[in-house]
Structures are given as C-alpha cells and as structure tokens.
Design goal:
single chain, alpha/beta, 11 strands, about 15% strand, globular
C-alpha cells in the first residue's frame, strides 16, 4: 500500500508500522502535493522542508529501533501551522507587511507540542492579516482559494489552514479562533475544526489578536484525527498564565456513543436573519440524526446572544489596539527609515506596514478606549459578556451539547462581500462562544441542496467538557462519513 495524501492518521501510521512506506516518503509526497496544489490554492506562505525531513528521519529511526509507539499521537503525520504561530527559524508574518521579514527566535508551545508528538511540520499557512477577517482576503500576500470552488473564499481568518487540509496538502493543521476563525472556515471547506475551551491550549508564542478571546485548535478531515491533535497540544503550560490544569482524553471520548445525551437547540439561532434555507435544513437534519442515535433534543434559550456581535466588536478591537501597539518600528517589524524624528518614523512605518482592516480595528480600538468613551462602550460590553456567559451556564443545566449552524451561509465568492459590517456577520453564530470561553467545533454534514458547497454544523460544549462535543461529532460522522479531500485535489489530481 503506497502513501496517499487522502489518508487519515490511522491509515498513515498503519502503513508506517507495516513498512509499506517510510516517514521520509510521507514527507516527500506531502511536499510534492503542496507544490502542485498550492499554485491554485495559495494556502502556504512558507515551506519548512528541512524541518519536515528531519522530523521524518526521527520517525524512521524510531521505527527501526522498535520505539514508534513512544513518539506520540502525531508520529509521521504531515502538519502545518497558521502563520501567527512562532516556529524557530521560520518567518512568522501574520500575513502582514509589518512582519514580512520577521524570523521567529523561539517556538510556540502548541507548535512544539505537535512536533514533540511526532508530526512532520510542512510549513506556515496563510491567514487574514493579524487574524482580522472572515475570508482570508485581507492577507498582504494574496488570498487563499477554497478547494471546493476556487472562485470562492475559504473563510477566515484561518483560511489557509482549512484550505490546506481540505485540499489534502496536509493531514492536519493548527489554526486560531478569536470569534469563529476555526469553525467558519472549517464549515466553508467541509472539514472538522475545533475551538477548545479557553485555557485548554497554551497561547504562548501565538501572536495575539484578542488575548481574552483567542484559542488555538486543530483542523482535520475526521473527528478522530482532530482528537489526536487535541491530545497532543492541550494541557497546562507554565509559560501561559491563562492555561489551565486540564488534561482530557479526546480519543477515548470518540469511542463513546450519544445515547442519553441531551442536545440543546437554540431558537434564536434557528430563526436568525440571514440564515439560508439550505444551512437551516442541514442543521435540523443533523439534529434528527442525533435523536435517532439515542440523544434527546431539548430547546434552550440564550436571551442575550443577539448582543454578542456588538459586544465582540467593542472588546475585540480594544484588545487588538493594545496588542498591535508593540509594532513600533524600533524593536522588530517594518521600519520606514529616513525620518527626522521618531514620531514620523512611527507613523510612516505603521501606515505602510498595516493593511486596511488592521488600521480599521486599531482606529476603532483607540476610539473605544479613549477618555469619555470607555465608560460608554467598553464597560457595558464587559457587562454583556457576563450576561452571555451566564446564559450559556444556564443553558448547559438543561443539555450536554448545543447544536447550531456554524455559518449562516456557504462560502461566498471573492469580492462578494465588500462592506465590513456585513462581513462581520459571517461569525454571528460563533462569536458568543469566544465571549463565554466555551468549547466549540464545526462538523461537516454534507453539501448544500442549492449551492452544492460544504455545510458545517456547530457543536458547543460546557467549559472544560470538550469531550462532550467529540462524542456528538463521532455520532454525526457515522452518519455523514469522514470529510473527503475536495474532488479537484484528491490524490493524484492536484497537478491536472
């Protein structure tokens, strides 16, 4: 059996154990597929071939020594990382001219844990600039294309991560989610995307957008593959004061069924403005399948969820403004030289380094945190955050997992949404989870009846009970099957 870029983790590791192929051959084939497919998709910003082959050789040495099982859950598995995650010796650009020439002097904990678990690191992935966006159109290095329809966006901000997995260029990938940036692109690209509970995965070494909202999670084409990545990267990190002493066994959770579980349905989500008929239809169909599998459907209320977007676009820009203040053209990042004074250098460097969406959020955050405005907007937004968190706590007294749409629609065409306010509504179903800090994941449930494009449903679990949503996701995967590689990029077709 030869290696195929369509393979899942279990298939790759079975082939390695049986000697059907070596880890170096896996790296060679994966990198060749990237070079062929990425001409169309543009998911990668940098390849790390030397690191990939070095990791593959370590795996092959372990196989020869009979210690393969000691390597970790990602042994021999191609993996790639969103370009806001530091990896020593690579460029970490956040898809911005501001960091175009920045080379990481250290490695983020989530990246290091994936490498320590035996993965083959292929490279760094495209994204919306500094994670500001829902389409990956704001990348300073050009947009990523959706493998299911190259004229459409892959979602964002982790669009490169989603597209790389959906096109078979990598088996798994890491992304970050501040308001839906894992779940929405996973839905658009027809794969599994997980945003863990805030604090389950270390944020050390991940360039911050909103420090109280960001969380790192995996993309994969199967629930078990996503579970393996979570087992590798989650857990407390002494370098991140927000990480918690929590360690779960997600692969074990995948072996449990949903009999007796309570699945919450939120009326406010199912009747939301902008929800397309085909997405609503697929969400209700998924609920019916879970009920048939032995789960109980219950209606739950989130009375303040309508205020989530308003609160988020106060809290997010305020935190972004604070986090982006460090890019001052002096210590690192773009420096526009030749100015007579430091103030002129600051202004020119930041004007040239940041793109339109980054500037928009900096200006908004600056305004919202200014004297006389802070009390009017920022403090009430924090109060709304408390109310939304309490709403979720109350809802989970009645259910184990909440089922909802991941996105109000399927992937849209490039340039179709030009109004920033309309673009922000792409995350209407995902933002409230980041505000509350709960876990969430997007699970593919087939193609839309009208568009023929992938649709994902969202599963939301109580804080630090993320295993619940993996159990439900496995039940749905038994009905819908694992996510396929997009037809145009299935093994052997990338260069056609």
């Amino acid at each position: 059996m030869a290696f195929s870029t369509d393979m899942c983790i279990a298939q790759i590791q079975a082939g390695l154990r049986a000697g059907d192929f070596t880890a170096r051959e896996v790296a060679q084939e994966a990198l060749a597929h990237v070079k062929a497919a990425d001409e169309k998709v543009h998911a990668f910003l940098e390849l790390t071939e030397e690191a990939a082959y070095a990791a593959a050789d370590r795996v092959d040495a372990a196989i020869a020594a009979g210690s393969f099982d000691e390597l970790g859950p990602l042994a021999g598995i191609p993996c790639a990382f969103k370009d806001n995650m530091n990896q020593e010796g690579t460029h970490t650009t956040c898809a911005s001219h501001m960091l175009e020439n920045y080379v990481s002097p250290y490695t983020a904990t989530c990246v290091q844990r994936a490498i320590d678990a035996g993965c083959i690191p292929l490279g760094k992935l495209n994204m919306d600039e500094f994670a500001f966006g829902s389409s990956t159109e704001s990348s300073a290095f050009g947009p990523t294309h959706n493998p299911w329809d190259l004229d459409r966006v892959p979602g964002g901000s982790s669009g490169g991560s989603a597209a790389a997995v959906a096109s078979g260029m990598t088996c798994v990938a890491l992304g970050s989610d501040t308001g839906g940036s894992i779940r929405q692109p996973a839905s658009f690209c027809g794969i599994v995307g997980v945003k863990p509970t805030y604090g389950m995965v270390s944020r050390y070494g991940v360039v911050a957008f909103g420090s109280s909202l960001d969380q790192v999670g995996p993309f994969a084409r199967s629930v078990e593959d996503a579970a393996a990545v979570m087992d590798a990267i989650c857990g407390h990190d002494e370098l991140d004061c927000t990480s918690q002493q929590v360690k779960a066994d997600f692969r074990a959770a995948c072996k449990q069924d949903v009999a007796g579980m309570r699945i919450g349905i939120v009326k406010e989500f199912m009747e939301a403005d902008g929800l397309t008929a085909e997405v609503r239809e697929r969400t209700l169909e998924a609920a019916a399948k879970l009920e048939a599998a032995g789960a109980e459907l219950v209606e739950v209320e989130l009375p303040h969820v309508d205020a989530a977007i308003s609160a988020y676009y106060v809290l997010g820009p305020c935190e972004a403004f604070s986090n982006l203040a460090r890019f001052d053209s002096v210590r690192y990042g773009l420096c526009d030289e030749g100015h007579k004074d430091l103030g002129g250098q600051y202004e020119s460097s930041r004007a040239k380094g940041f793109g339109p969406e980054a500037k928009r959020r900096i200006m908004l955050g600056s305004y919202l945190l200014s004297s006389g405005v802070y009390e009017k907007y920022y403090y009430p937004a924090q109060q709304v955050r408390t109310l939304i968190t309490q709403d979720y706590t109350s809802a989970y007294e009645k259910c184990d997992v909440i089922l909802a749409p991941a996105s109000p629609r399927t992937a849209f065409k490039f340039g179709e949404i030009s109004d920033p306010a309309t673009m922000y509504l792409s995350d209407v179903f995902t933002i409230s989870l980041n505000i509350a800090g709960n876990g969430g994941m997007s699970m593919p449930c087939g193609l839309g009846r009208e568009t023929g494009l992938p649709i994902g449903v969202q599963l939301m679990s109580p804080q630090f009970k993320d295993e619940n949503m993996f159990r439900v996701a496995m039940a749905l995967e038994k009905e819908y099957g694992t996510a396929p590689v997009a037809p145009e990029f299935s093994d052997g077709k990338a260069g056609e």
